[in-house]
Amino acid sequence: MPTPLRKILHVDMDAFYASVEQRDDPSLRGKPVVVAWRGARSVVVAASYEARVFGVRSAMPAMRAERLCPDAIFIPPDFTRYKEASRLVREIFLRHTDLVEPLSLDEAYLDVTENRSGLPSATATAEAIRAAIRAETGLTASAGVAGNKFLAKIASDWNKPDGTFVIRPRQVQAFLTPLPVGRLPGVGKVMQGKLAELGIATVGQLREVAGEELELRFGRWGRRLHQLSRGIDHSPVRSERLSVQISSEDTFERDLPLAELEPHIRRLAEKTWDGYQRQRQRHPDRTPRTVVLKLKTADFRILTRSLTPPTRPATLDALADIACDLRDRVALPGNTLYRLVGVGLSGFIEEDAGSVQTELFDLA
């Protein structure tokens, strides 16, 4: 039986955090705004389109952004306001469908195959959503409209900012053919290099390779590549994505030895515990079994140490104590310095899922 045609939207807010800042402070409009703390360890959280003209991008070191755009206005992030704007946008989504899958504060998938607003098409629904976002939040969004999530996400980036792009079923093959393989989800620089060795640079060239050959070379991922090159993606829009891990992390102003990390670990444990309690209000039977300590050394080596105790961590103090104790599992020289620490909870189960077994494992 053929898979029924779906109508999927990917809605992506335009330069979201920077746009919130420009909305709330009219003096910033039309100017290069960089949302980031200043300092050697800071990274860019968001950049306005005026700053992007100079090459400033998210996740770029703030100092590099300042060199690229000396006139940039740096604004410390205010996630309370960003979360409130995101909440208002999601309320607009939910007027049209219950099938909303948030990916982050500023983007989400929507399945509008059966939309509750009675609009005649997915394109009309996308336009209605974008108009409501502009009217009710003072912000703009771009939307991609297609028959699956993969294509909708590509489409949302095609007519930015403040635009809609539609990929109709009859257009899929022609649209994908000239795209570089790097536009496919999961195809990073390493995979691009491997495909280049096979003479594959575009999606059209990838499509010409037999699926069996791709699977032989790349395993299950080869099969997935074969499907994507043909515009095939059966993954559903999931209305709620439960966290695999709840965590908090922080980069220090200066590198610290292991012995000085305890107050930072306990502070981050408190943030992680607060996040868990918020999730617990929605899912009271979902319980974490494992405590995770993450460390990044001054030379950017990442270490994680994890413990699943016989009894789940039931209090903030228990979480913090276990996370601090996990430092003893780090076997690096005592003079090693660390630039980042994180504390997480993972291994979530339903509380009635049976007894919990003791488990101790290290990852480096």
TrEMBL record:
A GO BP annotation: error-prone translesion synthesis
Predominant subcellular localization, coarse grouping: cytoplasm
Known EC number: 2.7.7.7
Pfam families referenced in this protein's UniProt entry, alphabetically: IMS, IMS_C, IMS_HHH_1
Site description Substrate discrimination, residues in chain: Y17
Domain UmuC: 8-188
Subcellular location: Cytoplasm
Residue stretches spanning the membrane: none
Keywords, alphabetical: Cytoplasm, DNA damage, DNA repair, DNA replication, DNA-binding, DNA-directed DNA polymerase, Magnesium, Metal-binding, Mutator protein, Nucleotidyltransferase, Transferase
Subunit structure: Monomer.
HAMAP family (UniProt xref): DNApol_IV (MF_01113)
The name this protein goes by in its record: DNA polymerase IV
